[in-house]
Amino acid sequence: MSELAEKKEIIRQLKEKILSLEGFNTGSDSRLLDFGLGSMNTAFPGGAFPVGAIHEFISPTETCAAAANGFLAVLLSTLMKKGGVCLWISARRKLFAPGLRFFGVEPHRVIFIDVKREKEALWVMEQGLKCNSLAAVVAELRDISFAESRRLQLAVETSKVTGFLHRQGSRMENTLTCVSRWKIRPLASRTGELPGVGFPCLEVELVKIRNGRPGIWQFEWKNGAFKVVPDQDKIAVKPPVPQKQRHYA
Question: Which domains does the chain have, with CATH numbers?
Answer without folding.
Answer: 23-182 (3.40.50.300)
